[in-house]
Design a protein that fits this description.
Strand order of the largest sheet: 23-24-26-27-28-29-30-31
Shape: elongated
Strand content: 25-35%
Helix content: 40-55%
């Protein structure tokens, strides 16, 4: 144990740096830690970590000593920190000794300790304190065990008292009873001399048979002995053994003489033995050894679990089934606990009769004699193979992707955190790449989820084949993968070059995938990458940077990679800001609708398209090209689409009431996410009903993306609304990924040629051929055609000459606000 003088000498060496202090105290058996003037931990030794069950010093550093030590009076009332004696060590520079206190362990349990605290000084002023904890749990355990043993000894003496007595048969009274009867039974001695006292105080269930037995024994003329229960003064029962001899006068029995003995304890022990016998015959394996560890007895479950029969192990050491999985340190600690605490419990691997290793949960208890010496050891164990298998399965499922068997997001996060720590510590660079498969949803929905799963498995194997040993490939979910390159060296330029070379190889490798299970596909990937080194970043920061770069790669046309720059972070912050403000704009009704007219070949108004616009109160007009993609990615497109439909119907209804003209259909764009909502049909019908509109007034524009997936469900929704009178148009036709076999099944009215084909229709043969084909196909399928993006007279004349039915674009009219549209177009 550390001495006060030794501690004071040690403290006299201070101030030392932290490493010197740790080296100085690490070899002590006492638990040592230092605190500053605020009571915050500045260093600790290994013994303290072991005592409090922490793994690393940094888990304790910075904690206040009042977070570690219980602080309450004897009645449980909490103390204020400054009221505790330890505080005086710092504030008054006094050495403190507390013979008993309690400290918190990491798991929330507490342990009794003796505390020594010594201030240390710097420049004549108290600079902090060194505090030593001494584990006194064994001392307290020993004290309690001694108190318990003394109490048991006292009870044992009392329980073995005998009560001599004499009984007169003629008067049915005791003629003598030992004064100890009052203590044993609780009744005043005078009560024992009342007639029939004994008979009336036999326990009701034993009364009749005890009296009959006693009478029969008297008639036999011999001494007798029997057990029965009596009722004590407090209403409880006491088991007594009554040894009775006969008092005779001239050959006639006139009385009885005997002794009561309290056998309640022996009866309890009999019950315990019976229960112990039942317990021994349990599903848990049990073996009992002598104090040398030689096996004396095993139960049936032992043989069932281990395969060893009783005759195979009796007289042998448990080393018979010792595996090679545990080292000598493990068994030294086991025996240390047995010798010092009388018990050990934990997980251990042993071998069965077949020589196979299996895990056990084992509890060993030392059996002590009256002098405290160990006489036996009782070991109880269960086979936890199934539990371990389940744990391993849960652990695997927690950290690995069930489809590809690659590390999942949780494991990647852990490994990324470690990589960041190592990069800062050893001054090297690492990289994180996020890879997203382009148009995977199209493939997945078109060819089925099982095909998509097989594709993801193949891509996971492909990525693994292109990275180096030590790199980590993870599937984050869906079609998104991450590649962690934890150590690329110390040269930032070379690190970036290596990461970009890998990204290029990944893009090429994925683009080279031509088929899966003999089914031809076209596949590409967008990759974002970011470097990390000594700059202090969190794992989420690095993931966000890689995600931002990947978003940029997709914006750049996909099938490419992009490295993160600080400018991208500004853009990402802007997108995030737009997302939050857009949500608020929808809730506060800060959006407005503009309308763009559509005309037929005679330049007569044939329709109008409702287009959402956002006039930000601080930033002015925000382009739909900026906020619509963010709405689609974040899911805000659903409430936004609902807002557009309701407001378009409301405005159209107001025009019907106030304008004395015939109005063409109103076109409203519907996103694929919105269309796929289960309540979409109900939402449209409610919107029409709320505004008292006929369904013939409404045209819904859907994209080819809606056709991907469950085509039958799509057709069913369209037909439901078609029956009401709603018409449908395919928007941006020719830019998506749809099947003509699906298209001919759809009950639609109109194809809308995307503006990207119209822009160069006069100068690009391919665009002209595509437009010609769409118009011809539409005529063949009895569909009307509208061209959007018509910007000049020449385009209009060319389209009209090809038989295009309707036109929309700046040549006719720009999108106009409600008021301007009324004045310029409708009136």
């Amino acid at each position: 144990m550390i001495k006060s003088s030794d501690m004071q000498k040690t403290v006299g060496l201070l101030p030392l740096d932290t490493n010197q202090i740790i080296e100085l105290f690490d070899d002590l058996i006492e638990s040592i830690y230092g605190v500053d003037l605020k009571g915050n931990c500045t260093f600790c030794n290994k013994t303290l970590l072991q005592l409090l069950q922490y793994k690393q010093p940094k888990q304790l550093l910075g904690q206040n000593m009042h977070q570690l030590v219980h602080h309450s009076y004897h009645d449980g009332t909490p103390k204020k920190p400054e009221q505790d004696a330890l505080w005086q060590c710092i504030t008054k520079g006094k050495a403190i000794h507390k013979s008993q206190d309690w400290v918190w362990r990491k798991d929330g349990s507490s342990i009794p300790v003796e505390i020594w605290a010594y201030p240390f000084f710097k420049n004549g002023q108290v600079a902090g304190a060194i505090i030593a904890f001494i584990d006194i749990s064994h001392r307290i355990y020993t004290q309690k065990s001694l108190e318990s043993s003394l109490e048991q000894y006292r009870m044992l003496i009392e329980s073995t008292q005998v009560i001599p007595w004499e009984y007169d048969l003629a008067s049915k009274r005791f003629s003598f009873i030992s004064p100890q009867a009052e203590e044993m039974f609780g009744y005043p001695l005078t009560h024992w001399y009342v007639k029939n006292f004994w008979e009336e105080h036999i326990f009701i269930e034993d009364r009749e048979k005890s009296i009959i037995f006693c009478n029969q024994a008297i008639e036999s003329g011999k001494s007798f002995e029997f057990d029965y229960r009596m009722i004590k003064a407090d209403g409880s029962m006491i088991h007594v053994n009554d040894y009775v001899s006969l008092i005779k006068e001239e050959g006639i029995v006139t009385g009885l003489r005997g002794v009561f003995t309290d056998i309640s304890l022996s009866k309890l022990q009999e019950e315990q033995l019976r229960l112990a016998a039942v317990t021994f015959d349990t599903d848990s394996g049990i073996f009992i050894t002598d104090n040398k560890g030689i096996i004396l007895k095993v139960n049936n479950a032992f043989s069932n679990i281990t395969g060893f029969e009783e005759q195979d192990v009796i007289g042998k050491s448990p080393q018979l089934f010792k595996s090679d999985r545990h080292d000598e340190v493990f068994f030294k600690e086991l025996w240390h606990d047995l010798e010092n605490h009388g018990r050990w419990r934990g997980e251990i691997w042993n071998i069965n009769a077949s020589g196979d290793e299996y895990p056990q949960w084992l509890a060993i208890t030392a059996v002590k004699d009256s002098l405290g010496g160990t006489t036996h050891y009782v070991a109880i164990f269960t086979d936890i193979s199934e539990i371990k298998t389940a744990e391993d399965k849960i652990k695997y499922q927690t950290h690995y992707d069930s489809l590809t068997s690659l590390p999942n997001r949780l494991l990647l996060s852990h490994q990324l955190k470690q990589a960041l720590i190592q990069a800062r510590k050893f001054h090297h660079c690492g990289a994180l790449l996020l890879l997203d498969l382009d148009e995977f949803k199209v493939i997945n929905d078109s060819l089925g989820h099982e095909f998509g799963d097989r594709l993801l498995i193949q891509i996971g194997k492909l990525i693994n084949s292109l990275v180096s040993k030590g790199d980590v490939v993870s599937r984050l979910g869906g079609d998104e993968f991450a590649i962690l390159l934890p150590d690329l060296g110390g040269d930032t330029g070379l690190c970036l070059s290596a990461a970009e070379t890998l990204a290029q190889s990944l893009c090429k490798g994925i683009a080279d995938v031509q088929q899966v299970d003999s089914i031809p596909i076209h596949l590409s990937a967008s990759i974002g990458l970011t470097l990390f080194s000594q700059k202090r970043l969190s794992d989420s920061d690095v993931l966000k940077q890689a995600d931002t770069a990947m978003y940029k790669a997709k914006q750049a046309g996909k099938n490419s990679f992009t490295s993160f720059t600080e400018d991208m972070q500004d853009e990402a912050n802007k997108r995030l800001s737009i997302q939050g403000e857009l949500k608020r704009a929808i809730e506060l009704n800060q959006l407005e609708l503009h309308f763009q007219a559509q005309f037929d070949n005679q330049k007569k108004l044939s329709g109008m398209e409702a287009l959402v616009r956002w006039n930000h109160p601080d930033n002015g007009q925000i382009s739909p090209n900026d906020f619509i993609p963010i709405a689609e990615k974040s899911g805000l497109i659903i409430p936004l689409g609902k807002w557009v439909l309701h407001n378009a119907c409301e405005i159209y209804a107001s025009w019907l009431q106030t304008l004395a003209i015939e109005l063409p259909r109103m076109s409203v764009n519907v996103s694929s996410q919105q269309f796929q909502q289960l309540s979409f049909v109900e939402m449209v019908t409610n919107c029409l009903a709320t505004n008292n509109l006929s369904a013939e007034h409404l045209e819904l524009e859907i994209t080819e993306e809606v056709l991907i997936g469950n085509i039958d469900a799509t057709i069913a929704k369209i037909e439901q609304l078609k029956k009401l009178g709603v018409s449908f148009a395919i928007d941006d036709f020719g830019t998506g990924y749809s099947s003509l076999s699906y298209l001919k099944k759809l009950p639609i009215n109109l194809l809308k040629i995307d503006r990207s084909f119209i822009t160069d229709v006069l100068g690009n043969r391919d665009d002209a051929a595509i437009v010609d084909t769409i118009i011809a196909m539409s005529k063949h399928m009895n569909l009307k055609v509208i061209a959007e993006g018509v910007e000049n007279k020449e385009q209009y004349k060319w389209l009209k000459g090809r038989g295009c039915d309707f036109h929309q674009g700046f040549y006719f009219s720009q999108p106009l606000s409600k008021q301007v549209f009324e004045q310029k177009i409708l009136l």
